[in-house]
Automatic annotation (TrEMBL):
SUPFAM superfamilies: P-loop containing nucleoside triphosphate hydrolases
One Pfam assignment: ABC_tran
Key words of the record: Antibiotic resistance, ATP-binding, Cell membrane, Membrane, Nucleotide-binding, Translocase, Transport
InterPro entries named among the record's database cross-references: AAA+_ATPase (IPR003593), ABC_transporter-like_ATP-bd (IPR003439), ABC_transporter-like_CS (IPR017871), ABC_transporter_ATP-binding (IPR050763), DrrA (IPR005894), P-loop_NTPase (IPR027417)
Native species: Nocardiopsis alba
Protein topology in the membrane: Peripheral membrane protein
Official protein name in the record: ATP-binding cassette domain-containing protein
Length: 310
């Protein structure tokens, strides 16, 4: 739509005989967060490279911050930040010196560069480590300084390519908080990740890529609602009733998986009606359950439903 921060229309990318992207379309409104999910080689980095002006699409068009990524690439570059797996920082100099250097390269005067750096270090909780060489940083600190480096120029649109890959849960949560704050300030974010929980926490829209195709898109809750299959666990207090119920459930053939632990029968049902039928049948045979748990589909279920069927 006009006014969107990122607009991708039927983008394809071919490398020799490899079709990395096929007819990919998506859009992100200002201040939105789009999570791009997909397996290794799905085409996520290729799309980020096209949107950040590093690669040209083979077919289709894309705009970022209102500018065409091919014909207006330098304007695009001035309005974006890119952080991720391969951001080049000088490992031998301190985090502070890296940020000052980037600000100077972007045209800031020395005083401004120093002030902006101080502000970012403070915000990212990095003041303690600011004057140590980047090579001495932990994985979490390294990711934070990468992210700080990507926003030195106060970008309108931020591309985060697997920003928390390999981080421990605590460092991941810290980074999520930082990204969340940036989005509250109106920065538009396109995030690639293999962590479904990350996409669920941060994104208001998710696009699922598989082998270069968009196979599903929508808000995390829309996508979860679209997964028909749900897990339920039927619990019993005695082995005898549990065993008889398990045989009955198998016989009904309505259920895809049966797992057994602690006299629980874990079933996958295609609809609430199937669950009703199972409970009714058990009740009729005096095999009534003692406990029932229903599990909401996760983004992982969404992912498996779309990706494993292709
Ligand atoms: N420069 C290139 N030359 C040839 N093939 C490439 C090039 N860049 C990417 N590809 C291929 O394009 C496809 C998509 O790769 P891409 O790196 O975009 O996937 P990805 O989803 O980012 O994967 P990962 O999660 O592993 O980073 C892969 O088959 C990859 O091998």
């Amino acid at each position: 739509m006009p006014g969107d921060s990122i607009e991708v229309s039927k983008v394809g990318k071919v490398f020799g005989s490899v079709r990395a992207l096929n007819d990919v379309s998506l859009s992100v409104s200002p201040g939105g967060v789009l999570g791009l999910l997909g397996h290794n080689g799905a085409g996520k980095s290729t799309l980020i490279n096209i949107l950040s002006g590093v690669l040209e699409p083979t077919t289709g068009t894309a705009t970022v911050a209102g500018f065409d990524v091919v014909s207006q690439a330098s304007r695009v570059r001035r309005r974006i930040g890119v952080a991720g797996q391969y951001v080049a920082l000088d490992e031998q100099i301190s985090g502070r010196d890296n940020l000052v250097l980037i600000a100077r390269l972007m045209g800031a005067r020395r005083k401004e560069a120093v002030a902006r750096t101080g502000e970012l270090l403070e915000r990212f909780g990095m003041t303690g480590a600011a004057d140590r060489a980047v090579r001495t940083y932990s994985g979490g600190m390294r990711r934070r300084i990468d992210l700080a480096a990507s926003i030195v120029g106060a970008p309108e649109v931020l591309f985060l390519d697997e920003p928390t890959a390999g981080l421990d849960p605590e460092s991941r949560a810290e980074l999520w908080a930082i990204v969340h704050r940036l989005t509250e300030e109106g920065v538009t974010v396109l995030l690639t990740t293999q962590y479904l929980e990350e996409a669920d926490r941060l994104s208001d829209q998710v696009v699922l890529l598989s082998r270069g195709h968009v196979v599903a898109s929508g808000s995390p809750s829309e996508l979860k609602r679209g997964v028909g299959r749900r897990k339920a666990s039927l619990g019993f207090n005695e082995r005898e009733r549990f065993s008889a119920a398990r045989d009955e459930v198998r016989r009904m053939g309505l259920v895809a998986d049966i797992g057994e632990a602690n006299f629980d029968i874990d079933i996958t049902i295609a609809s609430p009606r199937d669950l009703g039928a199972v409970l009714h049948a058990l009740e009729e045979r005096n095999l009534g359950i003692d406990r029932l748990r229903l599990f909401e589909p996760s983004l992982e279920d969404v992912y498996l439903a779309h990706v494993s069927t292709r």
